[in-house]
Specification:
With 220 residues, the chain is mainly alpha-helical. Helix content is 63%, strand content 4%.
């Protein structure tokens, strides 16, 4: 933890730097605490930079915690108190994020939100993606995420994601010599069996049949 302050004569600016490993609060990776309290912040791409103002009650409370943490950092044998204070600060940070998200929802149009969802899906289609991940990325509830996206795109986000993955898989089947399994994994499908099932539902052919129909001979 570190603290910096501008030289005398300039406007008052104090910088607090508090660096800690998430396990300090979560106990261990993917614990109940980690999943419920840490992930919603750590995986929320909209809060890489967050402006907190003392005008908001939660913002003022959070800034107070920062000052208290800085004071404790200069004292010895305060590790347990620091962890407790960090926990309180983290809960306050979550409340502040929710406060800002609620106000932001009023200014983002459904069409703009759908564009943001599309951008997220196009960037992360090869990863494991859930509706909660998508909703968190655009600062809405899962229910609102589905509703607004379906209203504009006429599909749910997950339906669109599967269709997009299939289109990317078709490109790989035509343009590469990757095995069916490798194509599946590179386009976000967990197994080749599930990939083949989804692919045939949407294309009418298995991945192997589709590749053969494109006059590409590959040994899988």
């Amino acid at each position: 933890m570190d603290k910096k302050q501008k030289a005398a004569g300039s406007s008052k600016t104090v910088e607090h730097a508090h660096l800690f490993h998430p396990i300090l609060l979560g106990g261990y990776f993917n614990s109940a605490f980690y999943t419920k309290y840490l992930n919603p912040v750590l995986k929320n791409r909209s809060v890489e930079v967050l402006v907190i103002r003392e005008a908001n009650p939660t913002g003022k409370k959070f800034i107070t915690f920062l000052h208290q943490l800085t004071e404790l950092a200069d004292q010895s044998d305060k590790e347990f108190e620091i962890r407790n204070l960090l926990s309180q600060a983290w809960l306050t940070l979550i409340a502040e994020i929710k406060f800002q998200e609620q106000h932001q929802q009023l200014t983002v149009s459904p069409r703009e939100r759908s564009k943001n969802i599309l951008a997220y899906l196009h960037k992360h289609y090869a990863e494991k993606v859930t509706i909660n991940d998508i909703a968190t990325a655009v600062n809405v509830s899962p229910k609102e995420c589905i509703r607004s996206f379906k209203k504009n795109i006429h599909q749910t986000p997950i339906e669109y994601l599967l269709n997009y993955r299939v289109e990317q898989a078709k490109k790989l089947l035509r343009q590469s010599e990757l095995s069916i399994t490798d194509v599946a994994l590179r386009t976000g499908f967990s197994t080749s069996a599930y990939f083949s099932k989804i692919f045939k539902e949407r294309v009418g052919l298995t991945p192997r049949e589709y590749r053969q129909s494109q006059n590409t001979t590959v040994s899988d």
